[in-house]
Amino acid sequence: MSALAVGLALAVPAQAQDAAAIIGAEKARDAALQENIALDYVTQLTTRFGPRPAGSASETAAAEWAAGYMRDHGFRNVRIQEFPLVGWDRGEESAAIVGTNAQPLVVAALGHSPATPDGGLEAEVVRFSTLEAFQAVPDGSLAGKIAYVDAGQLVPMQTGAGYGPLTRIRGAGPALAGQKGAVAFIMRSVGSDEHRMPHTGTTRYVNGVVPVPAFALSAPDADQLSRLISYGEPVRMRLSSTARTYQTTSRNVIGDLPGRMRPEEIIVLGSHMDSWDLGTGAIDDGAGGAITLAAARAIADQGRTERTIRVILFGAEEVAQPVDTGNGGGAYLRSLSPEDLANHVFTGESDFGADRVYALQLPVGAQTGVFADAANRVLYPIGVLRSSEPELDGGVDIGPIVQAGVPVFGLKQDGLRYFDLHHTADDTLDKIDPEQLSQNVAAWAGLVSLVANSDVDFRAMVPATPTP
Ligand SMILES: [Zn+2]
Predict the structure, then answer these.
(1) Which of 313, 321, 319, 293 is nearest to 252 (CA)?
(2) Which neighbouring-strand residues pair with 94?
(3) Which end of the chain is more exposed for a tag (fewer CB within 10 A), N or C?
(4) Contact 431, 287 (CB under 8 A)
(5) What is the sign, positive or negative, of the torsion defined by CA atoms of 413, 418, 422, 427?
(6) Burial class (CB in 10 A: 0-12, 13-18, 19+), 108
(7) What is the pLDDT of residue 342?
(8) Which of 112, 59, 65 has its CA nearest to residue 82?
(9) What does the alpha-carbon distance between residue 85 and residue 314 come to, in Å, rounded to a whole number?
């Protein structure tokens, strides 16, 4: 904060100082409701490049195009930050029940799954209804079998609350299967739909390896397999995958709308450029780039802000790595000097589709007070309520800078239909509702404008003893 700004902050009551920022934020919010950059960006991105797997030629081409898009829309210092990555290519895959009940099943290999042996593998399926039951069997006891975890459907919720526990199965399953002696791992897709579209997603490396081939079954196929197993006869399956990993690079695309008074103070708006390979990554996460770019533009259209707004389209959010370096978010953090990092005043991430925002979560210590009141005044008219819950992590891409102490906000989106589409072939542009997308951009524009034109220091608001 400059000496002048300190003087003003002391001389002018906080409420009065915020009045101009509130009016500016309301203008940015209302301008965002009229803008069309968000829909244009996500339409062009998903149409021109289709799926953008982490480290693929398509992700690279999309990043270069997006840098140009940023420049064309007035962003400054637009740059591409490259980092090494182990990429993963799906290849071809298939699954079938064999024997008396022979029939094909619809599966998708999980990200970074190894291939099956040439020609596939065939084995008896052993089903578990919880991760805990799977963990409880002795090591080596599933020798030569296919381990199957069907922990039930994800229940659709506004908050998307059920996703985390089910992704633990996806992350830990293949390593556990290897430990128990199984030759492959299969699971019910982490999803809330009843379509025959499996949900892919990354699995996790343990000690640098994913030991066995791993697949997600679509919900109706998981139902079918579980029913057949319940009849009591042994069920054998054939699984085949030609997946492979390869050494490549990914990249972050970074663009600034420099501040007028305190340009060194940075607000980072994050999302990710890469997508899964099955759909075109419209809701995950072309929409996030669209929302943050359009919100930043709507704010800048009202005049230059006091602080700098930085939009980052992170690379390689979706995939685990043999050695975890934080992917795009980690590469960005490592590029910052301690002084740069200390000047990162606020951050948020948009990575939950394009449906409407319903709540604002502020950093620890900031949920009440003058700033929270101002934010509520700006966001309430578009149906966004301030939450009493603090935002703690923000998301995968900004996770590394948040862990390093950058205050984080969350604009919570309606997740009721997100996990019907997420990581499936059905994640396509037509699923984006332009009206909800506009409301989403308006919420980002209103909140970020308020921060970009004020002196508020969220780091100073953290209580000495955080509440449990
Ligand atoms: Zn995502």
Answers:
(1) 313
(2) 240
(3) C
(4) no
(5) negative
(6) buried
(7) 97
(8) 59
(9) 13
Gap from CA of 91 to ligand 1 centroid (Å) = 22
> How much distance in Å is there from the Cα of 140 to the middle of ligand 1?
35
Sign of torsion over alpha carbons 315, 318, 320, 326? positive
H runs (alpha helix) in 35-162:
37-49, 57-72, 131-136
Cα 423 to ligand 1 centre (Å): 9
pLDDT of 467:
54
Task: Return the structure tokens found at 51.
Answer: 């799926």
Task: Give the pLDDT confidence score for residue 464 in this predicted structure.
Answer: 67
Mean pLDDT computed over 24-45: 97
Tell me phi and psi for residue 279, to 5 degrees.
-105, -150
pLDDT over 70 at 178, yes or no:
yes
Indicate the fold that domain 91-242 takes in CATH.
Answer: Glucose Oxidase; domain 1 (3.50.30)
Which of 92, 315, 314, 110 has its CA nearest to residue 201?
110
The angle subtended at Cα 446 by Cα 445 and Cα 452, nearest 5°, is 80
Q: Where in the chain is the domain with CATH 3.50.30.30?
A: 91-242
Amino acid 3: pLDDT: 39
Statement: the pTM of the whole predicted model exceeds 0.90? yes
User: 421 alpha carbon to ligand 1 midpoint, in Å?
Assistant: 12
How far does residue 122's CA lie from ligand 1's centre (Å)? 33
- For residue 468, the model assigns a pLDDT of 53
Q: In what order do the strands lie in the sheet with 214-217?
A: 103-105, 93-98, 236-241, 121-128, 146-149, 184-188, 214-217, 107-109
* 433 close to 441: Cβ distance less than 8 angstroms: no
Q: How confident is the model at residue 374 (pLDDT cuts 50, 70, 90)?
A: very high
Q: Cα of 357 to ligand 1 centre, how many Å? A: 16
Sheet strands side by side (includes 410-413): 385-386, 357-361, 410-413
Residue 230 pLDDT class (50, 70, 90 cuts):
very high
Q: Kindly report, as residue ranges, where domains of CATH 3.40.630.10 are found in the chain.
A: 3-87+247-461
Domain spanning 3-87+247-461: which CATH class is it, in words? alpha beta
- Going from the Cα of 286 to the center of ligand 1, the distance in angstroms, rounded, reads 9
Q: How far is the CA of 285 from the centre of ligand 1 (A)?
A: 5
Can you read off the two tokens belonging to residue 314?
A: 């992170």
Q: Please give the share of the chain, as a percent, with pLDDT higher than 90.
A: 93
Q: Ligand 1 center to residue 335 CA distance, Å?
A: 23
How deeply is 125 buried, as exposed, middle or buried, from its count of CB atoms within 10 A (0-12, 13-18, 19+)?
buried
CB 216 within 8 A of CB 201: yes
